[in-house]
User: Fold these one by one.
Assistant:
Number 1:
Amino acid sequence: MSLRNCRTVKVLDVSPVGQSKSPGELFELRLQYPDWDGWKPGQFVMIRPTGWELDLLWARPFSICSSDGESLTLFIQNMGRGTSRIGKLKSGDTVTMWGPLGNSFAVEPETPTLLLAGGIGIAPFRGYVEQHPQPENLKLFMAHRLPLDCYPYALLSKSVSSHCMIEEKPEDLDRIIDTMRDRIREYAAQDGLILSCGPTPFMRTVQRFALEFKARAQVSLENRMACGVGACLGCVTKDGEGHHVQVCTRGPVFWADKVEL
Ligand SMILES: Cc1cc2nc3c(=O)[nH]c(=O)nc-3n(C[C@H](O)[C@H](O)[C@H](O)COP(=O)(O)OP(=O)(O)OC[C@H]3O[C@@H](n4cnc5c(N)ncnc54)[C@H](O)[C@@H]3O)c2cc1C
Ligand code: FES
């Protein structure tokens, strides 16, 4: 990434999404479009509000969800100090942003493709569906804990066939894992493509079944990141051969059989 791609952009708006027990737990952040030539679904940005000054040092990484040429949309879950303060930004505030960063999900227009989303892991799939040349070949399966209206699920389910399952009780998790197993086996049998994004335990489940059924599956990792450009080594993981690799530059998307989780 060149310095040309690090810039200050304006916040257009921050809107809470859905009716969770903690209002504002998920929100949509719309930023001024940063005048990029383009971006690919699966890529991410690092953002650091200019108002943080020296208080919180590191920027925070977020998947690019969608763009319309004038604005860039991110879907964010309030997880801690950084995201809670990002949620309090106002229209007209500014953030330093660098990106688009990292690699992107595979696109095989003719191949039956299953999108597996765990919670806010649905964010990059909005852009994936919008940019896909043949969305009729896509299916979405989503597992979630918060009410469905907290996520951009409705935006996707209008365009692709979809199925979601909520995890409210411990036994729900068993049903979700069984469904993931069935779907991954089904797509492996037809040499389909499986793309997944979500918390690490969700990615581990995808990887386990992908290896069991020899499925062609990709997992998008959400390691802690500081620089986003391969310099700090804060995000390293091991590839399938035991070598340390930076998730920010070699990922965040990896083939499931080429990364240790
Ligand atoms: C490539 C990439 C894309 C991402 N895309 C999105 C997205 O589209 N939407 C979104 O809401 N989040 C996304 N995340 C996760 C997001 O970056 C973290 O939730 C955020 O950095 C937490 O910052 P914080 O200051 O609020 O949390 P902190 O105060 O630093 O930590 C609070 C809690 O959040 C956990 N946490 C911190 N960093 C991460 C992380 N990277 N992943 C998971 N949990 C974390 C900590 O373990 C801790 O429990 C992405 C992460 C990566 C690496
Ligand atoms: S975040 Fe710095 S090397 Fe990946």
Number 2:
Amino acid sequence: MVMSTTLKVGPEERVRIRVRVNGVWYERDVEPRKLLVHFLREDLGFTSVHVGCDTGHCGACTVIMNGVSVKSCQVLAVQADGAEILTLEGLAKDGKLHPIQEAFWEKHALQCGYCTPGMIMETYFLLKENPEPSEEEIRRGLAGNLCRCTGYQNIVDAVKLASQKLKELKMTL
Ligand code: FES
Ligand code: FES
């Protein structure tokens, strides 16, 4: 038997959700139709999570949810109830950039920077799953993240450098 998962609330009603973002629990009432990207930006103030297309194509809104990269414009906030989420704001520690951020900086892997938070979070997931990816694996891993500026080569170089840095630091993601 197929069970219906339809939310039994109207568009004007609100649903209480709890999410843990960058190690901190937040509890808020949200409209059932609100997208996770808008919840993170507008309700919680994590403005690194960019809106590029709102249709799942550009990857600017990428975050890590329960250990997996997701395009947060493709997830409803209510679907994230109880989830653990990591955004770019959660990477730097004690005023020091994360090695992936350092690598993007050192390889000049950005111009306007609009795609960068999503690129970095997708890189985080890629290197978590495959700490020493080949160039082809990097390009395939970032295929869902679009950049209008860089031509991608410096981004690929940054991912290689990030992999090297994490290995040297013996740092797991
Ligand atoms: S804003 Fe989510 S994929 Fe473009
Ligand atoms: S740096 Fe401008 S879109 Fe990527």
